[in-house]
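Why do we bother with a discrete structure alphabet at all? Because it lets us treat a fold like text: something you can write down, compare, and reason about line by line. To make this less abstract, here is a complete entry for ATPase inhibitor. Read it the way you would read a sentence in a foreign language you are learning: slowly, and without expecting to understand everything at once.
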Amino acid sequence: MAMRRSTAVLRLMEAQRRPGLRYLSDSRGRILGEEERAAENVYIQKMEREKLEKLRQKAEKEKVEKEKAEKKAEGEAHKS
């Protein structure tokens, strides 16, 4: 516990001296560099954009299908 606390204090002191340095780690526990962190952010943003695009396409498809169903219902109502 004391070792972790002293390590955290040293990291905080180092971060104050060099504000651009981040102490974030990946799943393996190693510290990520700024370039790795930037690449990770770009990847996350790309995945979010792709997810939003899929949702947008799905909503558009549902809208078109709904309009077709409404037109079909109107056509059947006029025939009766």
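What the structure line is telling us, in plain words: The mean pLDDT is 77. DSSP finds two helices and no strands in the chain.
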